[in-house]
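Just wondering, does anyone understand these C-alpha cells?
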Amino acid sequence: MRKILLATSALVALTGAAQAAESPIQVTAGGFVDFRGALFHESVKLPGVTANSATAARRGGDFATEYGLNFAAEGKAAGGIDYGAMVVLNNRNNNSTDQVQMDQAYVWMSGKFGKVLMGDAHGVTDLMVMAPTVGEGQIDGSYTYFTDATTLAQFQPLYVDGLENSTKFTYYTPKVGNANHKVQLGVSYTPDYMAGGMDVALYRSNIATYRDVIETAIQYTGNFSPVNVVVSPIVAFGSGESSSPSPTNELRDFTLWGVGAQAMYAGFTLGGSYVDAGHMNTEKFSTETKDQNVWTLGLKYEFDKVAVATNYMNGQGYYDLINANGGAVATQYVKRFEAIGLGATYTWFPGLTSAADAVFFEQKRDTEGLKNIGHVLMLSQKMAF
C-alpha cells in the first residue's frame, strides 16, 4: 500500500511539474479600421463606338470602409513547442451586403521542426516578394474595390489572389543558414481550391474548380553589408475539374511558377517579380492557349514617419468575368494590362496612418480597338490596434 501511495504521489508530482513548466494560453484581440475616399474613372472604348453603357452610368467617386478583427490564442509547451490558433474576421469580400465573415481560421504549431498551419489560411506564396508598395498597396492594393471586374481584369502581382484562404495544410521549414545568409522552404496542400470553413466537396461544384493544389516556395535572405537582399521563387500545381460529369467546361491542369527579388539599402527598396501562370483558369476543351503572365517593378523609400513608393505592373491572360461587350468570347483575353502606382504614407502615432494612392491603368483586349483606360485616386485613414 505504501509503495502504491509513493508511486501515486510521484506521478502527481511529475504531472504538476510538467504543468508548471507550461505557460498558460494567452488570448489577444486586435484589428483595424480603414476609411477610404476615392475618385475613379474608366472609359471602355469599343471599335467604332464613341460611348458605352458599361461606363456611361458610372459614378465618379465614393467612400468605403474596410474593417477586421483578429483573435489569437498562443501557448508554450514544456518541450519548447509553441502552439496556437488564429481567427480573422472582416468585411473584405462582402462589400455588397457589408457583412462580416470569416477570412482566416487556423491552428498552428512551431518548434525546431519548423511551423505547421492547418485550416483556412494563406498559402506559402506569402514568402514571395515583388515590387515594393506602401499604404493601400498601389498595383497590389485596394484600388480594385473601385473598379468593375466585368470590364477591367483583376491582375495581381501573383497573377492569382494572394489572399485566398481555402482550407489547407501548410508547412514551413526552420530558417537555416548563418547570421548573414538564411533559407526557408514552404509547401501548402489544398484538396479543393474553392472550399473554406465547413465546405466539404461531396459532389462536383456548380462551377469548374481545381483539386489537389500544391504550392511550394523558397525564400533566401542575404546580408551583403550595406545591402540586404531577398530572393523568392515559387511553383504551384493544380488538377482541373469540371462542374458536372460532362467534361465540356473542365479546367486544364496548370503549373504556375514565378520569382521575386528585392534589394534594400539606406531606406531604399528596389524590387520586382515575374509569374508565368501557364494554363491556369483555362478550359481543357477550348482554344484558350495564349500566354498568361504578369511582372512588376518598383521602388520604395522610407524615412522617419514617411514612406513613398512607385511601382509598375504588366500582364496578360484570360479573365472570364469580363463581359464580351458585344464581341466574341476571344475578347475575354487581355493581351496587355498596364498599371502604374504612386503611393505615400505618414504615421501620425503608433497604429494611426494616413495614405495617398494613385493608380493609372490601361487594358487592351484581343479585339482590335477594344480597350479600357482609367484611374483610381484614393486617400485613406487607417487605425490598426
Q: What stands out?
A: Residues 153 and 318 are 9 Å apart (CA to CA). The first helix runs from residue 2 to 21. The longest strand covers residues 23-45.
